[in-house]
Fold this sequence. Notes:
The chain has helices at 6-11, 57-64, 87-93, 110-118, 126-131, 134-153, 172-184, 202-218, 230-236, 254-258, 261-268; strands spanning 17-28, 31-42, 46-50, 72-77, 80-81, 95-97, 190-194, 222-226, 239-244, 247-252. By secondary structure, the protein is of the alpha/beta class.
Amino acid sequence: MTIPDATSSELSGEPRAVIHIDSLSLSFGGLRALSGLDLRVGDREVVSVIGPNGAGKTTVFNVITGVYAPSEGDVWFGGESIAGKPPHVIARRGVARTFQTLRLFLNMSVLENVLAATYGATKATPAESVLRLPRARREEREARELAQEILGFFGQRLAGHRWDQPAYVLSYANRRRLEIARALATRPRLLLLDEPAAGMNPAETHEVTELIGRLRDERELAILVIEHDMHVVAGCSDRVVALDHGVKIAEGSFDEVADHPAVIEAYLGRDPGALR
């Protein structure tokens, strides 16, 4: 299989592809979870993946991050195939994710949660860390500075007075922010957000929508979002991809996808008028 030509998208006026999913299929026994999926996310682009429950959205994230190896097709990241590689290898390449259900270290402090994500990039040996040798001290200082800088990005929501608080005292919305902060600590090029606005009230949802835009513009990230809240999808997306039963049924702007007959059918059934 040939490597996708990154320059072709630039010549067509599209942003350079950070990740390119090529004819991806995944089966669990007789169940076809994904079928022939093509998807790309360009540099500093936000792409939202929508679809009803069971459409295969989180499965796409699991294939990208190495939880599952595809049955067919490939995943290209930065011109390199990452399909089937271990999750820690993919994370070091520059892919980070959050989860639909929060996975924080609740008894650790806010700062420690973010610091935990930085240690995968350190090179000091256990002996150097125990003996507090120069490289270990330098890496610890740099990790702390990075963690504080990332938490500062979230302003008062994760302000300095919260850094020493255990994560369990945070509000639900701030726990969501902390999980994103922890993902940023791996210094990703591609950020995968799995339902970042789930369980939030309208004001918090609006803040999350603005946050996604800031992550793209200020942190210069490519972002792939799974979201059920259409206000978030409409407010943050450069493109929208709709899935149903593991098949891409529409792609384009939010308005184009929202009005697509196949998308309406996937969400409402074959006869939307019968629901009135």
